[in-house]
Every structure is written in C-alpha cells, then in structure tokens.
Amino acid sequence: MTTYVAPTRDMLFAMNELAGLAAIAALPGNEEATPDLVEAILEEAAKFATEVLAPINAQGDRQGCTCKDGAVTTADGFQAAYGKFVESGWNAMPASPEFGGQGLPSLISTAVLEMWKASNMAFSLCQMLTLGAVAALENHGSDRDKQRYLPKMVSGEWTGTMNLTESQAGSDLSAVRTKAEPEGDHYRITGTKIFITWGEHDMAENIIHMVLARLPDAPEGTKGISLFVVPKFLVNADGSLGRRNDLVCASIEHKMGIHGSPTAVMAFGENEGAIGYLVGEANRGLACMFTMMNHARLNVGLEGVAISERAYQQALGFARERVQSRPIGATSGGPVAIIRHPDVRRMLMNMKARIEAMRALAYFTAAQMDTAHSHPDASERAKHQAMTDLLTPVVKGWCTENALDITSTGIQVHGGVGFIEETGACQHMRDARITTIYEGTTGIQANDLIGRKVARDQGAAVKLLLAEMNDTLAALEAAGDNELKVIAGSLLGGTLALEKSTDWLLATYDQDPASAAAGAVPYLKLFGTVTGGWLMARAALVAMKMLESPDADFYRAKKITARFYAEHVLPEAQVYREAIVSGAGSVLALDETMF
Amino acid sequence: MTTYVAPTRDMLFAMNELAGLAAIAALPGNEEATPDLVEAILEEAAKFATEVLAPINAQGDRQGCTCKDGAVTTADGFQAAYGKFVESGWNAMPASPEFGGQGLPSLISTAVLEMWKASNMAFSLCQMLTLGAVAALENHGSDRDKQRYLPKMVSGEWTGTMNLTESQAGSDLSAVRTKAEPEGDHYRITGTKIFITWGEHDMAENIIHMVLARLPDAPEGTKGISLFVVPKFLVNADGSLGRRNDLVCASIEHKMGIHGSPTAVMAFGENEGAIGYLVGEANRGLACMFTMMNHARLNVGLEGVAISERAYQQALGFARERVQSRPIGATSGGPVAIIRHPDVRRMLMNMKARIEAMRALAYFTAAQMDTAHSHPDASERAKHQAMTDLLTPVVKGWCTENALDITSTGIQVHGGVGFIEETGACQHMRDARITTIYEGTTGIQANDLIGRKVARDQGAAVKLLLAEMNDTLAALEAAGDNELKVIAGSLLGGTLALEKSTDWLLATYDQDPASAAAGAVPYLKLFGTVTGGWLMARAALVAMKMLESPDADFYRAKKITARFYAEHVLPEAQVYREAIVSGAGSVLALDETMF
C-alpha cells in the first residue's frame, strides 16, 4: 500500500505556466494570491492530504458505511479526520469571504481540491457537495437563509447535499415528482430521492439538503421545478438547532467504489411533510441548480485527474520496487526492477502524459472561470465565461473517461497482485468508475457540449480556441527544435480534425440532430485530446527554454512527456474525427429489434 | 438482474461462415461433427448455461469462498451445479476420447466454453484448469499416471490445477524456487505457490496439482524447471483414494472479481514433503507447461469474448426497458426507452461490433488449431500450426483488453444504477479485470507475438494472413456495394498499417529489441483490430448474399455492424501504427528517476 504525495511541482507548473496564475493574481480582488501564499497553501494542503486523508482511504473502502434506523456510521477515522479538516479551515478555503471563506481564486482551490480527491476521494465528496449547496444558497437564497445556513456550511460544521435524482428521474430531471405544498413562510416537502451523496452521516451536527421539488400548480417538465433548502434539524432564529425535520435516510447503496462515502436514499415527509424554504424563484429551480452543477462538473473532472494521479503513484512505486526478469535483449545478468521493461515504461508514460494534459486542462479552465469572475472588462469577462462554459463538459467528460483507462492501467502495471484488493490498485479503479456517471454522464456532457456550447454560438468559442492553438503551432515551428517539430506535426493533425469535426457538427446539428448526437461523445473526446495536446505543446515550449535551469530534469521530462503525448495519444484525434464525420449512419441504422 | 441467453445464432455464423466448420468436420477423425450434432450440442449447452450456471453467478460474487483450516467452502449452489455439470458429461466434452472425452473439434468446444464463461466465469475456471492439467498429463505424463489420473479428471470427478507462480516468480518463471527431492519412484516437493485457481475447494473428492519445481541438481533459470503431478489425496494402485498428501491451502485471496473462484496460496511439504511424480523429462517442465498454456491462453481470450457478451446482454436489456427523456430533437411527446438515444446506440453498437469481431477471431483460431491437429497433409498442418501460434497471443491479448472497455461501457449504459452492485453490471467489469493479467499479461502476450511469432519466422505467417486479407479486399471491391466499399477502404488502411508496422518490427527486432518491445502491445492491438476487421469484412460479404433469405434481419444487422466496425473501430489501427513506428523513442527516453 503506497501513500500519496501531492505533485506540487507539476501543479505549480500548470498553474504558473499554462493557466497563468500571475495574471489571475493581478485581477481585482485577488491581491492576496501572491506566489508565496500559493506555495504555502499547497505545501500545507499536501501535508494534510498525506498525513490525515490518505491513511484512512483504504479503511474507508474496506469498512464502508453502515445504516441502521436512519443513522449512518462512517468508517473508522473519518469523523476525526473531518473534525481536523474543519478545524484547519480547509472546508472554508474555497468559499467566498462574505460567509467565512478565504475568497481565493478557483485556480488555487482547484489544486488543493485535487489533493483531497487524490488522497481520499470518498472523503472529499462531502466537501464538494457542501460547497455546491453553498454556491446555490449564496447565489439564489434569501438573506434570511444565507445568514441562517451559510456560515456553518462554509466552515463545515454543517454539511450540504444536492437532492436531484429520483428513481424515474435520472439524467432527465423533468420527471421529478417530489412535491412541495406551501404552508405559511415555508413548504411541506414529500418524496423520495436517490443517490444522495453524503445524504446522512455522523461527521457533522446538521445536514442542509438542497431539494428539487414541484409546487402544486407547477407546469410539467423542467419549467415546473423549484429548489428548496431542507435542513435535517430545523434552525431556530438564534441559530441554535431546533427539532428534527421530517426526513430520514431510508437506506444506503452497496456500490462498486467510493465505499467511504454514504450514498443515501432520502425519504422526505413520511409523516407531516418536511419543512423546506424556497430558494430563488418558484419554477426556476433548475437554473439555480445549474449554478452549482457547473462547479460540480469541473470538480468531478478534477476527480478524474486526482484518482489517476493516485493510481499512477501507486503503479510507479510498484514498478520501481518489483524485480522481475532480465531487461529485454539481455542474455545474462540478473532480473531488474520492472520499470526497466519497455512495456511497463510505456504504461507509465501513458498514465503520466495523460494526467499532465488533464491537469493542465482542468487548471486552465479554472483560470478561465477566475477571469470570467474578476476581470474588470465586461467583454473579457464574457469571453472567458464562454471559454469556461465550453471547456466545462470537456474537463468533466474527458478527464473522467481517461481516468477509467488510467486506473485500469495502474492495476495492469502490478500484474497479478494488482487484482488483489489489499494491494490498493483496485480501489482506485472502482472509485474512478463513478466519475463518468455522476453529475451527468459523459453522454450528457457531450450533448451539452455540441448543443449549448458549440452549436448555439455557431462555433464562435471553439474558433477562438483554435486560433490560440494556431499561435502555438507557429511558435513550435519557429522554435527550430526537432522534438517540437514532431509535436507540431501531431498537433496540426489534431487541430485540423477538431476544425473539420466542428464544421461538420455546425452543418448537421439543426437539420439532423440524431446524427450530430451520434458523434457527441467522440467529439467530446476529440476536444479533450486536442486541447490537452495543445497545452502539452505549450508546456514543451516553456520547457525548451528551461533546459539549463537548476530544475532541468523536470523540464526535460516535461518535453519528453509532451512528445510521448503527441506520438501516442494525440493521433486518437483521427479516430474520433472519422467516427463523427462518417460514422453516424452505422450508429443509427439498426432496428431496435436487431440488436 | 438479467440472465444469459447464449448467442447461438452468431456462434453458428462464426463457426460456419468464418471459421469453416464444414471443412473442419471433413477432416479425418471429425466425422461425428455433423451440423445436426453441433446444433444439438449448442442447444443443450445453452440450456445448461441459462438454467444452471447463470442463476448462481451473482451469488458466487456476493458470497465468495471461505477458507478455514485449509478447507475451502464455495458459494451456495456451486457444489450442486458442479455435480450436474459432471453428471451431464460437460466436463468431459472437450477432452480426447481415449480417457472418456468426446473428441470433438476445438471449434465446437470453443462455442460451448464461451457459454460457460459467459454464464458463470468463476465457475468455468475450474473446468478450464482441469482441462489444462489433463492436456499436460496426456501429452507428457507416464502411462501409469495417465491411467491413474486422467479418467477421473476428464469426467470431472477430480479437478486439476496449475501451480506455476511463486511470490518472486510471476511473469518470470525462471525464478521458481519450489524444490523436488528424488525418493524412489517419486519426489518430495516443498515450496509455496500463489494464485492457484481452484487450488482447494469442496466440489470434487480429489484435486490433482500440476506443480513446477526444481530438482537438486537443476541448472538455474528456465532450463532447470521440472513438472510434477501432485495429488491432494494419493491414489492407490486400484484407483481408490489413499492418504492425504502433504499439501495444504494456506489461505485464499481477496480479489476484485471472480469471487466465486477460490484463488489459493498452496503450501507444499510443510511436514515430510508432498509426494509428486515427474511429468515428462527432468528440466523440461516449462515446455510441458507450454502445451497447456497455449490452450489456456486461447481460453482466456475466449473469456474476454464471453464476459463482454454477458455485459452486452445486460446493457441491452436495460436500454430496452429504461425510459428516460425525449428523443433527441423532439420538442413534444413523452420519454422513450434509452436505446432510442443516439449515444446509447453508439455504446451498444460499439460493444456488439467488437464482440462479433472477437468471437470471429477466437473461433477462426480454434479452427486453425483443429486443422493443425487433424489435416492429413503435413505441410497444411504446419501452416495452420503457425497460424494458431501467431493468433494465440492476439486472441488472448486483444479480446481481453477489449473486454475491459466493453464491460465498463456496460456499466455506463446503465447510468447511476450501473454503479450499484445489485444491478449486476459491476460484477462483469470486476470479473473481466483479471483476464488481461492471468495466463500471461498483455505485455507478455505481446512480447511472445513480436518475438516467437513474428520475428522468428521473419514475418512469414503474418504475410500469409495479409495475403488472405488482400483476397478479401479484392472481393469487397468486386462486390459493387457501397457499404462494402466503405468497409474495403477502412480495411485497406488497416492492412497497410499492419504491413508497415510488421516491416518496421522485422527491421528493428534484432538490432534494437527495446524499441521493438516498446511497441509490442500496440502491435498486438493493431493485429487484433485489423484481423477482427478482416473477419467482419468477410462476414459482410457473406451477409450481402443473404439479404433476401428468411433470416434477412440477422444478415442486415451483420452488414451494418461490419460497417460500424470499419468506421469506429478499425481506424484505431493508425494510432497503433504511429505508436509502433514513431513512438519508441519517447517511451524509452526518460531517466527512471524522472518519472
């Protein structure tokens, strides 16, 4: 069982060189984000991740949670770790200062969140859901509710949840049936929600549920859904806890992974009806939810990065220690550590290259969000908001799909012991398996990408991005370096594939939406593969200038890793292009009975 | 929870049209394999799989096996099912008639084995290991040992195991340390073996272990390993069971999947030494093992096909039943079954197309083996043996690597409930995860492929296969059908990629073995992808002529599925070619410390 060491060197590289931390820190309101502070935060967070969260990760998996009479008990060590987490201020760190957060740029909290997710993904979900609920309340809640709930949710003394899914309403929230009946200043909520992450547990004294439900006179479909805040314990005017609300955890799920995180079936209003308060306008609940969903989607994409990094570290540690067989071609001499075998290196390089590209993409997107939030110029804000919107489904979909492969490769590097649970490699793969599903499946992300993010603005945002890629191509060609030329050739192929596929999509989306949708996931993967390749190419350009620096090894490795990506990963762009541009017919041709 | 229905229609198609069952049945000794008999066997086996093995599959996963004081208890229902399996003669079916088997061609038993593996992979492993031990004894054992063990092993009254791995000797069997000291007509075996599938259990009265060990004077490395037969209970001259041998199951592993199959740590000779008998010549144990390993490798490849089929059936059943969201582009009307959503269709088509190509390849290879075994002409036998040898690592490596993706996609089709263990989709993915590891990892298969199977004969066997592919290309072009033209274009790209990569490998293998090995797994995947594409193209040619037959729907679906493969899967060949021909440098460039 290996531990986790936060890859702060690569995190800082992605923040400084690819996401532009200096520019973010120069935006109004971000004055505190000095390089020293950022390094200090990352160092402290890395320590917490290694010392507090990583050691209980396997225990959480093995022991899981138990539910008895509506009470959920978490695995040994989780309660104590959560106490330390709150006490150290980590829960509050990413939140805005008005209610106790530190108000630091998302780019910084993104690096910190990656550490929580890598060291203990199941644990990290509690904070993620809490911060999502905080965002919804902060943006849409009444002043009374903000004052009542936010300070303790931001601190982490109380946790938050998102209650969206019902058994008949999964990807399709228009089918939500939970009811809200008005009664004075509040509503009575009745209905059953499923898949509620950290819906019930023993780590905090109160749990604040954000619940989607329908008013009695609500129109059908998505335009008749409202958002409510429904606390486990009602909160008195003085902020003290009142009586228990009419909601209960009916059961928890037996899942493939993230065993440390309880996934609850929540029953609201089995007696007199749970008391809830409207958040935002009536029938506009979905719009309120979207506020937090975009954050959550980026965060789940980041989970893909994080769990992949964890799997990589575990595999790398094993490959350095495990001695087996002579090097290829040797006819004498003893066995060597398996990292010296070419196929093991290939697997490790594949993991490493994808992870670095994914991290770059996630951090770059966080920086877009920061600029969209804080730039003084409205047109810059709009431009970066469009880029954030464009990249959010790509980060979510592509980083998580990659994580499935990478965590599986992590097992493969181990050979037979990889399949033994005690080794720890399986847990990462089982944990990763949820990431392409929750907060919207890859298919949902891809439909969002081709529809709202590409077709709606006629490809304007994509074309801005492609123009940036062309600038990088020119810089690569101008550098006069053979390795950068190889990278440029591959990136050119990738950008042309993206351009051609985008043109095809724009021409197809309105008149033949089914054909466009048939290529949606390949388009999302194409987008991630090429954008990741672009960021790796930019990384190689930076690295080329630093090969004589004291940290030369890091930059040499970065340049080689970028070349690996160009030769082994980026060519996938052509497969996706082919599937998008030529493949819709065979996706749709079969009668349903002929499957 | 869905059940399993054997895909006999597609199995018969692959057997008849792609593997050439009629030609196999015409070989000497195969007279019994009439079309009627084959259909009857498949029908009966399908019934057994659905009625007896499939229903206990999930139970085996949930309950697993337990080990107490050296005794292993299997999950509820396994003992009874095994009794029926033996009683019905299914264990004996694939074995040669001399010791009670039916002596049918491998092609037929391959289809039957696919059913066992799909309906209950954990259960099926017991027979697989027994048949492997039977093959080793039959080919290399003394007459005394054959008479003593084989009849009851063939019937299944006794089961067999392969004891190869030790903790320091995984992929590298040269590191085996288990000792064998001569004593009269037998040897005393001492040592500890790990990862012994069905090494101990409660389903049979005796277990016959095939054990690799070293004689006292043995040379180091692989040339000093001998094979021994070591029964759990010694067998008296009259065939009755004697006293317990000095071997014990020390523990069983806690694995990610195949929980129904006990994986034992076996301790030999903790007291006076376990009594074993030499099989074959001293120090030639590895060669004896290879006899059964090739069979076992094909069978594990077949597991990839089988578990993928099971995952596909489960996902398809769900996609037909689960109603969610309007069809894409619709602005009114109700929600529809998700099979009507393009991205779900894409996932199902991807599963279906790969599975059919994998099945075709596995069955085609089984037919090569049958021809190599029974053809009257020695040069034909040699040619087909070379083809069997060439394709064995491809079937093992490519079908199992595909199975990882396909079983994962099976979960994805389910959305959120796919991650819940009770749904059953997770088990298939967890079970599948071992298939790329045991019987030699994908890396080991790939090294075998590029070294012993391609470089050693200077690509002669590959070129024979490429020539057959070119014949198919000509037939596709001559057919005058647009869909077949599309398929031809894609297949041409694939064959050129295979040809070019093979040429590169042949030029590189001797002088730069590390670079060749860096591309070994991509080459294996390229080989499988293209050969699968060739077989799908042949299937489309057959289908084109049958579109007016009473079974027209099957052939229409086959032709469309072949086109899907050509458009969505076969283009991957270019990614592999790029990785092989251009990518070795970046695999090998990084210093070990720079990972």
TrEMBL record, chains A, B:
Residues 283-449 form the Acyl-CoA dehydrogenase/oxidase C-terminal domain. Residues 39-157 form the Acyl-CoA dehydrogenase/oxidase N-terminal domain. It catalyses: 3-(methylsulfanyl)propanoyl-CoA + oxidized [electron-transfer flavoprotein] + H(+) = 3-(methylsulfanyl)acryloyl-CoA + reduced [electron-transfer flavoprotein]. Its cofactor is FAD. The keyword Flavoprotein applies. Involved in the assimilation of dimethylsulphoniopropionate (DMSP), an important compound in the fixation of carbon in marine phytoplankton, by mediating the conversion of 3-(methylthio)propanoyl-CoA (MMPA-CoA) to 3-(methylthio)acryloyl-CoA (MTA-CoA). This is 3-methylmercaptopropionyl-CoA dehydrogenase. It comes from Caballeronia terrestris.
